[in-house]
Design a protein that fits this description.
CATH class of the largest domain: Alpha Beta
Number of strands: 5
Strand order of the largest sheet: 2-1-5-3-4
Shape: elongated
CATH superfamily of the largest domain: Beta-grasp domain
Distance between the termini: 42 Å
Structural class: alpha+beta
Largest sheet: 5 strands, mixed
Number of helices: 5
CATH architecture of the largest domain: Roll
Order of helices and strands: EEHEEEHHHH
CATH topology of the largest domain: Ubiquitin-like (UB roll)
Helix content: 25-40%
Bound molecules: FE2/S2 (inorganic) cluster
Amino acid sequence: MATAVPMATRIPVRISVNGTEYAAEVEPRLLLVHFLRDNLGLTGTHVGCDTSQCGACVVYLDGRSVKSCTVLTVQADGGEVQTIEGLAKNGAYDPVQQGFWEMHGLQCGYCTPGMIMSAHSLLRRNPNPTEEEIRHALEGNLCRCTGYQNIVKAIQYAANQMGGTTGAGTSDSQPIGG
Ligand code: FES
Ligand code: FES
């Protein structure tokens, strides 16, 4: 029979975030996104819905992009997390960040960290995505401002910077996000 865990029980965790090791004691129910924002002050990871719909909270966990509102902090124990704050290196934007800057891939910016993390994950898996593949990869990320077109251009820009040629224009435009 399972043993009930009292609400006040705190569980020790050790998590590497953007290359820095953190030790903490957290409630079992604490979501990873709240650990990042509230415990570590890494507020670049946003909370848009808390129900796995919007993608504003996407981070890497052990190299895989995850929606951090659907991960308990204790599930990340012993793991490596990378957030939007960890993308720039030596003061230089990552190509995906640069693409959003160059191609005006944002307006209010609320969706942007999650969009960039999901786009980064796509380009690691597929350095030369077609427009259709870009739109498909961002289905789990919602944007209420841009209409998505400049987000797609930003990712095509990044792919070009990273050495891919992108299949820009090789497929019909399709709405993403839903
Ligand atoms: Fe995680 Fe919306 S806050 S998907
Ligand atoms: Fe405002 Fe995407 S830029 S939600």
